[in-house]
Automatic annotation (TrEMBL):
It comes from Paeniglutamicibacter psychrophenolicus. This is MFS family permease. Residues 28-414 form the Major facilitator superfamily (MFS) profile domain. The chain crosses the membrane at residues 29-50, 56-81, 93-113, 119-141, 153-175, 181-201, 244-263, 269-288, 300-319, 325-348, 360-382, 388-409. The keyword Isomerase does not apply. The keyword Transmembrane applies. It is a multi-pass membrane protein. Keywords: Membrane, Transmembrane, Transmembrane helix, Transport.
Length: 424
């Protein structure tokens, strides 16, 4: 049995952070947190503009939603390769290469002269996206001390959210300069992010004479078969799929279009505001979600957060006034923020500290991306046929499949001096 494996769903028992001095956040993770903010700022910048840019080529809601789905589809297809590259070359090399690929594809989107070109260029970006996503998650899982995994997951997610708060608002105002300018800004932001990681993270290993490939070989890899033996991993795949459908797929593709359809002239500004307010609610939840995850376990925050996110998604498509639209955006963000760190910590528990989990993280990413792919397409078709209300309701209802998956995972409190929750 691998040194970090056990017969429980979480190979390492959570440690109550209140009963010992907490370790500090590793420097490598702090670098990734900084880079994540830059990436998210650029992504948030184009999020409210991308579907509208697609419709400017005289296509419908479903076709505009495909622009969101193609990015996730490319991520899904390339995820297994990204996992293998991370295992073989090491996380920093794969991360920097992936970010630069997305930067190039984003700049090309700004030059697109047809819907087909936009589709192709956006799809190419998905190849690079899965490279830096999987490598970043693998590095965080490998280097996170088990006592503060929830807090590190919250910190990393929070950096994305800070970028997502400012990005959509800036994107809405940048739309006044045309649809193309934000893509050039985003491409530049990605180059900055790649530079941060290259000059800070890669060279931080200068104390060792090992190359990235040699270093990756020296790290123990967790086999995917071991992860499949954990009920928590299988539940995380289901909740990752439903969250990908709702938060990364339907919300990013349909909210901008729904806002324009429901609120006319104010729709473009409200689209960016809604995505930013969603991120604000997400960030507010993250201030407590990491500590709750480390103290009380993974299951409860996921159940509560995913239920809240599902209900808010189901309801938002029926509102016809701005205050309710904004309120449900905030509530949806709170739900997603509560579950995010717990879900990431659950995967990190399966991988175990000090092990390379490239294939495991790639599998989880594939589940999330699969939801991001089919969610916008099917919800877009529903919106075209029977309206936005039913598109969001169906999406919210699917979220409860993730709730059911985690209800089937058993969590208990052991009687010990640590008295911390474990999964069995």
């Amino acid at each position: 049995m691998p040194k970090n494996a056990s017969t429980s769903d979480f190979p390492e028992k959570p440690v109550n952070p209140d009963l010992r001095k907490l370790p500090s956040v590793p420097r490598e993770i702090r670098v990734l947190v900084a880079a994540a903010f830059v990436v998210a700022l650029g992504f948030g910048l184009i999020a409210p503009i991308l579907p509208q840019f697609a419709t400017s080529f005289n296509v419908g809601v479903a076709a505009a939603s495909v622009i969101v789905s193609i990015f996730a589809f490319a991520r899904l297809i390339f995820a297994p390769v990204s996992g293998k590259l991370t295992d073989r070359l090491g996380e920093p090399t794969v991360y920097v290469t992936g970010v630069l690929i997305v930067a190039a594809s984003t700049i090309l989107c700004g030059f697109a002269q047809s819907y087909t070109q936009l589709l192709i260029f956006r799809g190419l970006g998905g190849l690079g996206s899965t490279m830096f996503t999987v490598s970043a998650m693998a590095l965080i899982a490998r280097m996170s001390p088990r006592e503060i995994r929830g807090r590190i997951a919250g910190l990393y997610s929070g950096s994305f959210l800070l970028g997502n708060v400012a990005g959509p608002v800036l994107g809405s105002f940048a739309a006044g300069m045309g649809f193309r300018i934000p893509f050039f800004i985003y491409g530049g932001a990605l180059i900055v992010a790649a530079s941060i990681v290259y000059f800070s993270l890669s060279h931080s290993r200068g104390a060792t004479e090992k190359s990235a490939a040699e270093e990756a070989v020296a790290v123990e890899r967790i086999p995917l078969s071991e992860a499949w033996g954990a009920a928590s991993f299988k539940a995380a795949l289901v909740s990752g799929f439903t969250n990908g459908w709702m938060a990364f797929g339907v919300r990013m593709s349909l909210i901008p279009l729904f806002a324009v359809a429901a609120f006319a002239s104010k729709g473009t500004l409200l689209a960016g505001l809604a995505l930013a307010i969603f991120a604000v609610g997400n960030g507010a939840a993250l201030t407590v979600a990491g500590r709750l995850t480390d103290t009380y376990g993974r299951r409860l925050p996921i159940l509560v957060g995913l239920s809240i996110a599902s209900l808010s998604t189901a309801a938002i498509g029926w509102v016809d006034n701005i205050p309710w639209f904004i309120a449900l955006s905030v509530i949806g963000g709170v739900g997603t923020g509560l579950m995010g760190p717990a879900q990431q910590a659950a995967i990190a528990d399966v991988v175990g500290q000090g092990r390379n989990g490239g294939k495991v993280l790639a599998t989880f990413q594939m589940a999330t991306d699969f939801g991001s792919i089919i969610g916008p397409i099917l919800a877009g078709l529903i919106a075209d046929q029977v309206g936005f209300g039913w598109a969001f309701t169906v999406s919210g209802a699917l979220g409860f499949f993730g709730v059911l998956a985690w209800l089937l995972v058993k969590e208990k409190r052991e009687t010990s001096n640590l008295d911390t929750p474990t999964i069995s």
